[in-house]
Amino acid sequence: xxxxxxxxxxxxxxxxxxxxxxxxxxxxxxxxxxxxxxxxxxxxxxxxxxxxxxxxxxxxxxxxxxxxxxxxxxxxxxxxxxxxxxxxxxxxxxxxxxxxxxxxxxxxxxxxxxxxxxxxxxxxxxxxxxxxxxxxxxxxxxxxxxxxxxxxxxxxxxxxxxxxxxxxxxxxxxxxxxxxxxxxxxxxxxxxxxxxxxxxxxxxxxxxxxxxxxxxxxxxxxxxxxxxxxxxxxxxxxxxxxxxxxxxxxxxxxxxxxxxxxxxxxxxxxxxxxxxxxxxxxxxxxxxxxxxxxxxxxxxxxxxxxxxxxxxxxxxxxxxxxxxxxxxxxxxxxxxxxxxxxxxxxxxxxxxxxxxxxxxxxxxxxxxxxxxxxxxxxxxxxxx
Length: 384
Ligand code: PMP
Ligand code: GLN
Known about the structure:
15 helices; alpha/beta; four-stranded antiparallel sheet; 41% helix
């Protein structure tokens, strides 16, 4: 008998734009500035440490919460950068990527009927994670063209059903960052509530022009209600390793781990040990990342000077937004396809991050690429 398919739990969801655009880029031999990943290698010393731990026999399950040496390195970093004290045993967990950390945080706390506030443009995994867990996403707007939060709108969206707010700074895809006043607003709105904050800080080290990353960990009134998430994928040029972490006060972390242990149980063991070694040996690697990516941002913007694209400001992340109204009237999804097929540069249309479907004729380029790639892309984009 043919299977009677149950109705989809995610009826509106197709294949992610990252998969769609990277595939299209490959099919057409286009330069892939769509999906966010570097086209250069991680530090050789890090790879050497992986091989060494594998050879030494670290090939079985890691501890459920993560290898102790890595959790220690993560806690030390949170202390050194943000002045935040986290207990290595109870308050740090290594995850299989930030995507898993976000899903796990949502599934640990969100019940059917709960509301979760997200900010649009919204990273594509948040709303499906909320909906798979029976929650309802409530969308606050980061208004084009500056993508600033409107705190009076957020205040109006908070109800007794609001269980969680998911924030993301530096912000993908806009490249905007929040400042201390934004964090103060977030704290003011949540301080007398039971709302949990999930802070997606995967681009914490990519903040430019001397500005500082406003981690929830810096702000004690937010820290106490927050799960802070970062990803080694971004920081060490290893998006393919899918390894990240979550920091939270012990009561929150205890609930997070109840879900974590049945989602993945534990994370790739030799990679954790290698990262722990590398973090200890090269503490400056993470903090030098801002200058490294700022130079790439500037090189890419320079490449596009003289093109018909109009560049948005980029304060952080490794993404550059560009308006193309001077080039075409096409909707952004069609423009992205056209640019890939006809001009050989793949990009991400920003409307896919907007549940409203609003299309401001903006596309996102990833500049985490070597000089030659950025120069070749620049040449093609100047000719559009
Ligand atoms: N959050 C944001 C804002 C991201 O851009 C990404 C990926 N680039 C992730 C989460 C997922 O990170 P990971 O690859 O570690 O799952
Ligand atoms: N976060 C990356 C981006 O925004 C892609 C991650 C993925 O492919 N899911 O491009």
